[in-house]
Write a structure and sequence with these properties.
heterodimer, A: 280 residues, Rossmann fold, 2 domains, 11 helices, B: 226 residues, mainly alpha, 77% helix
């Protein structure tokens, strides 16, 4: 379990990035951290594996205070995947790239090879194993970065904006993958702006704004609350907006499909096209 | 400051120069940042002192260490009080720079632009370096592990991504510049016009005078080390 107790963090420039954060993450959790740009999401993520140490309060990873142990020690348990794969790719082949972390953690060559193979397979990268990571597309590089962290099977996986640059199919794969991980008892924490992805995956949502937690709860409950969504400068998911409109016009909400909802709204509004029918 | 400091190797000259720099630091309001860079210079200046102590005399060691401090202060003064943008603009106004730039690079403002960009990218690169270090540490890299050779090798995973990011960024910058019509036409105007005021002429006069006097002293007298 990762526990944050009254964590505040101030950068040396004096900027207060996190203020009194209380949070706990345990195996089997799937948490999405959302919030406006500069809300402190990445700063929070860097606290989970000890890259940043709290100015006040403390962070415990399985009972160990992050100020007292090394990042390398924590990295075995807490895998943090950075947003931009270009910040970590350096090897000649995808295979070597994925093996890098495992070698750092001191696994035997046989284990390294086995884990690399398994991870590449799982992320659909097996065919690129001997290619240079720099020749891959942006989305593929992002998956190599993910694979390089996943290979050591951390108990806690922190993903910074994993859906950026991924097409719909890849997002779907990622979702299934995350589902698989947390049903195996691992914890997955995801920093994201992707409301649709969150709405469809239904994790627990933690809404950050200006370094403070302003909302906590299931995706449905947080993302359907206007005041919270606006505070974190998000736009509600389409589904939520659609049903918001139904309520607004006093229409039944027990419809099961989008088309039916649209018909109901269009009937109500007569010839005027329902605003929700136009996708942004 | 630079020229007299390099001409003479005398304790007294260095003390005078250093003392004359101090009020400038306060006028420029950079005394605090200067103190910080001084702290970074402690190692190098003690090295200079030790090396010169064993190869020369105590006085020449003191003089050369002070010379280092004078140079450090002079550079600090210049770069801490002058914004790189202004410096670029100023370079762009110097006929010789424009002429050289046209000769070498084909465009009169290419050289000053290169300078401004280079200076401007340093802080950006520093941010990138920090992110790369964080990313690799998250993969279990320990920079200060192992013997000296191992420690140098530890930096490979930092340097390669950093280099690639820099190259990629410069290519993107080139495309962005081209798509916006760089270098433009001859006679490009600038939003901020730098003008030499009376004070600037006075400073230039004093500097040229000081250089002339120090060269004259250098040629006619032998200044003792102490």
């Amino acid at each position: 379990m990762i526990t944050l107790e009254h964590v505040s963090f101030r950068y040396s420039s004096g900027y207060l990035a996190l203020h009194e954060i209380d949070l706990s993450i345990q195996g089997g959790d799937f948490v999405a951290i959302m919030g406006e740009n500069g809300a402190g999401k990445t700063t929070l993520a860097k606290h989970l594996n000890g890259l940043l140490k709290p100015s006040q309060g403390r962070v415990l990873v399985d009972g160990e205070d992050t100020r007292k142990v090394s990042v390398a020690h924590l990295a075995r348990k807490v895998g943090l995947v950075f947003q931009n794969p270009d910040h970590l790719l350096f090897s000649e082949t995808v295979k070597d790239e994925v093996a890098f972390g495992l070698k750092n953690f001191g696994f035997s060559p046989e284990v390294v090879e086995k884990q690399v193979g398994r991870t590449l397979e799982a992320l659909g990268l097996a065919e690129y194993a001997d290619k240079s990571p720099f020749l891959l597309s942006g989305g593929e590089r992002k998956r190599v970065a993910l694979a390089s962290i996943l290979a050591s099977e951390p108990d806690y996986l922190i993903l910074d904006e994993p859906t950026i640059g991924q097409d719909y199919q890849q997002k779907e794969r990622l979702r299934n993958f995350i589902l698989q991980l947390y049903s195996q008892g691992k914890a997955v924490v995801m920093i994201t702006h992707d409301v649709e992805f969150v709405a469809e995956s239904n994790p627990k949502v933690i809404l950050l704004s200006k370094g403070q937690i302003v909302g906590k709860g299931s995706a449905d409950s947080v993302l359907s609350r206007d005041e919270m969504v606006n505070r974190a400068s998000l736009v509600k998911p389409q589904m939520s907006r659609l049903f918001g409109e139904l309520t607004k016009y006093g229409l039944p909400r027990d419809v099961v499909d989008v088309h039916r909802a649209r018909i109901l709204l269009e009937d109500k509004l007569g010839e005027v096209k329902a605003p929700v029918a136009q996708n942004p | 400051m630079l020229i007299p400091a390099l001409l003479f190797a005398s304790v007294w000259v260095m003390v005078i120069l250093l003392l004359s720099q101090l009020p400038l630091l306060f006028i420029g309001r950079v005394a605090r940042r200067w103190a910080l860079s001084l702290r970074a210079g402690v190692f190098l200046s003690s090295l200079i002192f030790v090396v010169n102590f064993f190869t020369g005399s105590v006085f020449s060691a003191i003089a050369l260490t002070l010379r280092f401090l004078v140079l450090l202060t002079a550079f600090s003064l210049f770069f801490m009080t002058t914004s790189p943008d202004d410096l670029g603009l100023a370079l762009d106004r110097i006929g010789a720079v424009r002429w050289l730039s046209r000769k070498w690079l084909g465009y009169p403002n290419a050289l000053s632009f290169t300078f401004t960009t280079a200076v401007r990218l340093v802080p950006t690169l520093a941010v990138d370096a920090q992110t790369v270090v964080d990313a690799q540490r998250s993969r279990g890299l320990e920079l200060d592990r192992g013997n000296l050779l191992r420690r140098i090798r530890n930096y490979i995973p930092i340097l390669i991504p950093l280099l690639l990011i820099a190259i990629r960024r410069s290519l993107e910058l080139a495309e962005a510049l081209e798509s916006r019509g760089f270098p433009g036409k001859e006679g490009r105007t600038s939003l901020f016009q730098l003008k030499l005021k009376r004070g600037d002429y006075a400073i230039i006069g004093i500097s040229v005078g000081a250089i002339a006097v120090s060269i004259w002293i250098f040629l006619h007298y032998r200044v003792p080390v102490f």
